[in-house]
Amino acid sequence: MLVSIFIIWGAFFPENVQYVLGLIDGFISDTFGWFYLWSTTGFVLFAAFLIFGPYGKIKLGRPDDEPEYSYFTWFAFLFTAGMGVGLVFYGVTEPVTHFYSPPSADPETTAAAKESMQYTLFHWGFHPWATYAVLALTLAYFKFRHRAPALISSAFSPLIGDRSKGGLGTAIDTLAVFATVFGIATSLGLGATQITAGLSYTFDGIPNTLTTNLIVIAVITVLFMLSATTGINRGIRYLSWANIILAIALMAFVFVLGSSVQMVESFSTTLGNYLQNLPSMTLGMNAFGGDREFLNSWTLFYWAWWIGWSPFVGTFIARVSRGRTIREFVIGVTAVPVIFSAFWFSVFGVSGLNMDSAEGGIIHQLMNEMGNEVALFAFLESTPAAAVVIGITVLLITSFFVTSADSGTFVLGMLTTGGKLNPNTGIKAIWGIVLAATAAVLLWSGGLSALQMAMLIAAFPFAILMIFMCISLIKALKSEHDILQIENKQREHDPEYRENLRKELRRRREGFKKTLPDTDNEEY
């Protein structure tokens, strides 16, 4: 209902929507920017603790559960749901933009080139994936190990008890739905603008206008609603395979034809600079009067985007991760995507910067004239068989678009049907229409700036919830870890000591059970 009100408001009063979003966005950025930085940093540290801490061997499921999906399929799911459209959209755009407007170096210098690659990886590195990992792990732990409903509110049972099943729990799940809708709508808007840009750049008869964007959204909506009817094990799985194969093929094509040695060197240098400067980049706020434009326009937007996307991505990752240990899960969700992102930006970032420099700043000029979404296509135009390559790229973006929206309707269906792992097609169709309408209204209200502002606003309250989710998870893990230790001791010691341990174990189990969500849910 509330999402519908927003859609109607934006459809009839687009300028008012942009004005109101701008006021709220400016207030949050200037007043609570530090909160986004500290929150995402906390999630990175928490993820590291889960890898190296004492709980790493606990399995997300029963002791005899095996992973439902192979590593390749699992990573394909992570890649498609976690970044997808955004990675393609910003592959050339972000390094080139930072080269001309770096956070601290002089523009259009070697230092600016290094800094552009460093900050690009920073925005797509450990922070987003740690944010996803924290939420996904919490949901998977309570769902598959303790058979709780697949709802965000279930994760709060150790803190608020039965209130997680009442009005407070409903409020938590409602907030998760809002964050999910605006998070996915932002990405769908980005995807629509880039598909339109690619078609317009390649074919003279197709204008790069809002109307074309809306037509693209309508067509893609039909496609992902058709995909939604096939379920996760067919539609989403096969699309995810296609996405990662096409993405790797496109990256390999650019790598072979470009400055391959420089790309490898850039990968090594950028990764080293990123790790070396991670603390200063993570917590830098320009507190003493420095320019905050870069911070507000890039870092805070990204951190809000990742937090806003986390209910969707986290719920989806949790859904496909049963049977993995906590350590295996966190390493898989953080390390592998970060390495892939580093190489992706080394290939497309270096290639884009080289072409831009060789052609007298042509990519940057086109971005200023036609929008950031044309950067990738301006670069691909210089490759052999450019029309074919651009066509494949548009197909890749479309496939990412469809998969993200399909996954989004799946997750929203779960969140609004009591946590069902396989919501019915009708519910997914309704949410598909809502997502498309929200993306269209945000583009109608103010283009990409409206998308970014909506994302920053929606993410703020959910970041607070995520902090409490971490606390709740630690409380549950500590209780279960203590129980597991007693069980191990019980097997090792004499009968009298075992009897005392049995009583202590019974007491702890009963106490732990009281803190867990309702485990009568039969869907496992």
Domain count: the total is 1
Distance between the termini: 30 Å
Give the C-level CATH assignment: Mainly Alpha
* Major sheet details: none
* Gross morphology: globular
* Number of β-strand runs: 0
CATH architecture descriptor: Up-down Bundle
Order of helices and strands: HHHHHHHHHHHHHHHHHHH
Which class best fits the helix and strand makeup?
mainly alpha
| Average pLDDT, all residues | 83
Helix content percent band:
over 70%
Number of helices: 19
Low-confidence stretches: none
β-strand percent reads: under 5%
What's the gist of this structure?
One of its GO terms (molecular function) is transmembrane transporter activity. By secondary structure, the chain is mainly alpha-helical.
Which helices and strands, and how do they pair?
Blueprint: H1 2-12, H2 14-52, H3 71-82, H4 85-100, H5 110-123, H6 126-145, H7 157-160, H8 167-202, H9 210-228, H10 232-257, H11 260-276, H12 278-283, H13 293-319, H14 326-358, H15 362-370, H16 375-380, H17 386-415, H18 425-492, H19 495-515
Helix pairs in contact: 1-2, 1-18, 2-6, 2-13, 2-14, 2-18, 3-10, 3-13, 4-5, 4-14, 5-11, 5-14, 6-13, 6-14, 6-18, 8-9, 8-13, 8-17, 8-18, 9-17, 9-18, 10-17, 11-14, 13-17, 13-18, 17-18, 18-19
